[in-house]
Specification:
By secondary structure, the protein is α/β, with parallel strands linked by helices. The chain folds into 2 domains: 3-177, P-loop containing nucleotide triphosphate hydrolases (Rossmann fold), CATH 3.40.50; 195-306, Zinc Finger, Delta Prime, domain 3 (Up-down Bundle), CATH 1.20.272. The protein has 14 helices and 5 strands. It has a 5-stranded parallel beta sheet with strand order 2-3-4-1-5, with helices on one face. Helix 4 (80-89) links the parallel strand 2 and strand 3 (100-104). Helix 4 runs parallel beside helix 5 and helix 13 runs antiparallel to helix 14. It is elongated. The protein starts with 8 loop residues before the first helix and ends with a helix. Bound molecules: zinc ion. Residues 47-49, 51, 54, 56, 58-59 line the site of zinc ion (ZN).
Length: 308
């Protein structure tokens, strides 16, 4: 858990400790942030002094996942059985906190039948129960369910907020110093810091665009690739070209974006995006990476020459 999240402007501005409602849906495109906010808020609800960071008995139980009044669902697919387990707990009184708290992270993973089952409980709220859910995909939640939830949009962490949580993350062995000044959201930061291959991928992409001038360069460029995560490679390539098109110098290294923009007209980059999407799909279906990349680079160069 991030204790410092409570000090960020994003968390403070949500005004969560005013009136406690019976249901919440935290949503934004930043999955990690939605979930941290939801869990932190849940922690304040069961905390003795409702601060969530006083390390009281209940805070400790929350961290140890042993607090009797909190139920957390966080799984790839939430089925009727999972919702039934929650529903079975709704009619009992809380054991040590004032409320029983049910947290469903990434609620878009609840299948439709299960959502309908959950709907009944949301329609007949009980003052002892609080539902807290999160999602990045509000369109995956039934309108009927949506209408029962207090929807709270979570704004992106700003630069100061990132600085605040950086100290906390460092204690957990995650160093985000390099990303504070970039336009990454928290999910992207977590992905990159957890991904040891991120640096290699960026270096590979940098090498490609430094050395790719004619089709004769393709074999050498392809052979110089060091990264192991081939599908992620195409995801980054696509995102980097998007940053070039948007002239966004904040997300990746300025030099990388500058080099690509200098060598490739925007129209060629734009036309390359669907080509990379194709390459990504081929990679998923296990076509040889070097063959895909060879083909892709040839087509990207073709786009470049067509644009001249
Ligand atoms: Zn506490």
């Amino acid at each position: 858990m991030l204790e410092t999240i409570y000090n960020t402007s994003v968390y403070k501005n949500l005004g969560l400790n005013k009136n406690i409602m019976h249901s919440y849906l935290f949503f934004s495109s930043d999955k990690e942030l939605n979930n941290i906010i939801a869990m932190s808020f849940a922690k304040t609800l069961i905390c003795e002094k409702h601060t969530g960071n006083d390390n009281c008995k209940f805070c400790k139980q929350f961290e140890a996942k042993t607090h009797p009044d909190i139920t957390i669902l966080n799984q790839d697919s939430i089925k009727v059985e999972d919702i039934s387990k929650i529903i079975n707990k709704l009619n009992t009184l809380p054991i040590s906190a004032d409320k029983k708290v049910f947290v469903i992270l990434n609620a878009d993973t609840i299948n439709e039948i299960a959502q309908n089952k959950l709907l009944k409980s949301l329609e007949e709220p009980n003052s002892h129960n609080i539902f807290i859910m999160t999602t990045t995909k509000t369109d995956k939640i039934l309108n009927t369910v949506m209408s029962r939830l207090n929807k709270i949009f979570v704004p992106l962490l700003n630069h100061d907020d990132k600085k605040i949580i950086a100290t906390d993350l460092k204690k957990n062995g995650i160093d985000i110093t390099n990303y504070i000044n970039k336009d990454f959201n928290l999910t992207e930061i977590m992905n990159f810091t957890n991904n040891a291959n991120y640096k290699t991928i960026i270096e590979d992409i940098n090498n490609i665009f430094q050395n790719l001038n004619t089709t004769a360069d393709i074999p050498n460029v392809v052979n110089s690739i060091k990264s192991n995560e081939k599908t992620t490679f195409f995801t980054y390539l696509q995102d980097i070209l998007l940053s070039c098109i948007k002239e966004d110098y904040n997300k990746y290294e300025k030099n990388l974006i500058y080099t690509i923009n200098l060598k490739f007209p925007k129209k060629a980059l734009l036309n390359s995006l669907p080509l990379i999407e194709d390459a990504y799909k081929k990679q998923i279906s296990n076509v040889n990476f070097f063959y895909i990349l060879d083909n892709l680079l040839f087509n990207i160069l073709k786009e470049k020459f067509l644009c001249k």
